[in-house]
Amino acid sequence: MVDEILNNCETKMQSSIEHMQRDFKTLRTGKVTTSVLDNVKIDYYGTPTSLDQVGSVITQDATTIVVNPWEKNLLSDIESAISAANVGATPNNDGDLIKLFFPAMTVEQRQESAKQMKGMGENAKVSVRNDRKNSNDQIKKLEKDKEITADESKSAQDNIQKTTDKFSLKIDSILKDKEAEILKV
After folding, report:
1. With b meaning 16 or more CB within 10 Å and e meaning fewer, what string describes 143-171?
2. What does the pLDDT look like over 142-174, one tens digit per residue?
3. Domains, in order of start, for the chain
4. pTM check: above 0.90
C-alpha cells in the first residue's frame, strides 16, 4: 500500500513537469515555432478544430509561419481565429495561404517571456507540493488506521520528501535552461 502511494506520488509529480513543458511551448523564444498556434481553434462545420487539423502549419524560417489550409474556403476563418488569438503577429492572407511574420523579439519581450516561464515553473512547484501533501495525508491515514507503524509512516514521509526535492530540483534545472534559451539573442 505504501509503495503504491509512493509510486502514485512520483507519477503525479512527473506529470506536473510534463504539463509545465507543454505550457512552455506556447511561449515565444528567439526562433518562432508552430506551437504558438496550438491554442488557436477555428469553427470547422460546428466543431472547434485546431489549425493543424485543417491544413499544414510550418515554419518557413526563424520568424515566419505559413498556414496552408486544405480547403481554401477556410482562409478567412483561419485568419480571424489567428487575429483573435493575439499570437504576436498579424496574419497575411494572399488567397492561397496565410503567412505570419513575427518581428524579432525585443529585450522587453524576452524578459516578459522569461517572467511567464517562471510563473509556469512556480505553478509546477505548487502542484508538486500539493502532490506531496496528498501523499503524506494518505500515509498518515494508514498510520491512524493502524495499517502501518509509526516508523513505516516516518520512513514513507521521508521518501516522499526526497521525491519532492528531486522534482523541485528538476523544475529549477529546466527553468534555468529555458530562461537561457529565451534570453539568448
Report:
1. beeeebeeeebeebbebbeebbeebbeeb
2. 999 999 999 999 999 999 999 999 999 999 999
3. 2-26+106-183 (1.10.132.20), 34-101 (3.30.1360.40)
4. no
